[in-house]
Batch of 4 targets.
Target 1
Amino acid sequence: MTGNKQAVIHYSGGTDSTCVVCLKANEFDKIHLISYKRFGIFKTENIETNVNKLNQMFGKDKFIRKIIDINKIYKLVVYDDYFYNLKKFGFFNLAVCGLCKMAMHTRTIIYCLENNINTVFDGANKFAGNQTATDQIKEYIDVISEIYKQFNISYSAPVYDMAAPQHITWERKLGIDKSDNGDTDIT
């Protein structure tokens, strides 16, 4: 492994982003676990439960943990030219999940440029939201990937095509948890 190889992972603390961490942890010297907060996103501190589990699994020196406020960027993305967009797109202008995620990606690009990081992953998964999550459809992922490329940053969603395991945690599916009882869970 080359020295100081780093990546950013959009980290929600959920099953998909935690699985990405488990898949990528040994490929990088440092992983920046980035979570975002804004008005309307609550309880980001609850994510720390799974961060602590990851620290136990891979060592606390593996991760740099950040919770970043995106209120300003979110308001710009959602409300800039709001009335024009409302007239042009109607109620589709109110699909804020994709717009919120766009604010997160915008802030991630800034973070990567500030910290000289050129690899980003997230837990986008086509099965999220019964395959209707606007921020996790293939076309959206493709557009986001192209935006990152403009800044010489590689972006991918390694668990995009993975269906959630049935009756088994990601830890067990990946072979990290070898316990017989199956009680260990990262969710």
Note: The first strand starts at residue 6 and ends at 10.
Target 2
Amino acid sequence: MPRFARLFEAAADTLHAYYQAIADSDIDAVMSLWIDEDFASLIDSSGAHWHGIDSIRAGLVQLAGSQTLASAIEPLDVRVYDSLGTVVYAVAEAHRAREPLAAPRMVYATYVLVHERGEWRIAHIHASPMPDETANEFAAKMRQGQGALH
């Protein structure tokens, strides 16, 4: 096995932990995954843009309070670009609403993770809504139970 195989698997563990923390509505767990730097940034699919850990936390708390923070994020299609010290995930996602009957929001998200002090940390997230036509294609595949890669 190549030396770096486990290193990049650990980056995926961080992304999975992010999805789980969102599902648990645990802002502290979400924030524990971020790099501890002021250059961290998050662009939400609504267009909100936050720089720095304190701003990101405040923004996520605001989204959670307004019920617009997803109750679950389902990755539908994942592309991974890695190099030593940095991994970028380009993911098509279904963001499930807290309202059980609401259709999921279909989102493209880019996650930039950096290797810092032996751990993978989130440095940047950029999410944007999918165009309607693409979102409808993904939604149809979800309804048919095929998943995004079939």
Note: The longest strand covers residues 72-83.
Target 3
Amino acid sequence: LVAAPLVAEAGLPRLTCSVVRAPGGLTHGECHMATSALLAAPLIKQSMPLDCESAALAVALQARGFDISQGWVFDQLPKDPRVAIVTGAHPVIWGDPSVDFVGNVYGAESRYTGYGVYYPPIAAAAERAGATADGHTGWTTTDIEAEIRAGHPVVVWVNFNFAYSATGRWNARDGRSIPYTTEEHAVTVVGFNTVTGTVMVVDVGVGLHRPISTAAFTAASATFGGMAVACSEPGAPYTPAHRQ
């Protein structure tokens, strides 16, 4: 039995069950995990060169029914506009994207004039909007698929080319060692299909759905150690689906 539900509400059943009636009135039931799901979500294109994280969260929040724009999300983020200290064509000291949006949103990652933000400020913005957010590193593709089954869109950090990339390091002014790439990107996962072996994302870089092979998605998300933020609706106790 293959089920392909359109998931639009959190808390939908994770099992698809069927009952077969046999001669004599006997019944036999079977239940299977859904092999695919697709959340209803808007297609948003980022409005500034480096605000992909804000746009990706806006997709997730709007999918959960919040009237929130990417501009609103970006305004919630603390900013560190100080320039990078570059030695040998690489940054050695810059800001901490786990605390602030680093650099100029109209800058360029390749020139170290602008960068982005990691999961803690994005999760905080989601909760400020009224959502419940689960943000951390260490997410697996299986974890993310479980969140989609539960109706929770997930913002995931990847490399812009959707492939694994080794990361460089700079030292934040707070002393933390920061992993980075010059193609850091964030997308919103809204679906998956285990039969075709694909994950569906809203790629805010172009404002379109983008199906990615599960293997490629897994490799791309490993670039930032499985960094992601799952969003659910307000008012409901949030139990991360991948931990149930």
Note: Residues 2 and 104 are 47 Å apart (CA to CA).
Target 4
Amino acid sequence: MSVNETIELVQVRWDGLMVYKYYTGPRKGRGKELLFDRQKRYSGTVKSAAKKRMMKSIDLLIQLSKLTMVARPGGKHFPFRLGFWTLTVPGQVRKATDVHPIFKNFLAWMRRQGIQYIWKAEYQKRGQVHYHLICNKYVPWVDIRDAWNKRLKKSGFLDSYARKCGHFNPNSLDVRDVRSNKSLSIYLAK
């Protein structure tokens, strides 16, 4: 196999086989400096190649995720396969270079909990970065919020919020149950 060769791969899925081409040559634009320079180039749309990678990742996570029954307070149960989390940073706008290490630390916490995930960073209209995650393990929203806010507090990102509101526990999390895999893919790939 030469350095710049495209090979054909086959992936076994629960509903069939998927055949696709994989480029084995050098990749351009993969440096760390590009990760933090995206806000300047961010157009609000996902390119077709990124959309394909995202859809493939979502499809694989769906296939890996088992349907489980989760108990609610009061004894009722509900089916759970995937959750959709949005993590935000309250207060003043921070550089993505400052927020991203905190998020990476949060991802390490998720891995310790045995959570498999897919994430995507996005910029709000005000310029603040926030993160969307699809996760395959049920975690009570209070535990997620506490883990995220603990990291924000340790980095000093909640100091101005605490002075204004009198506590270090902002609503920096939105959790949704994924009811439709199709609607989830459409939302993330918009």
Note: The first strand starts at residue 6 and ends at 13.
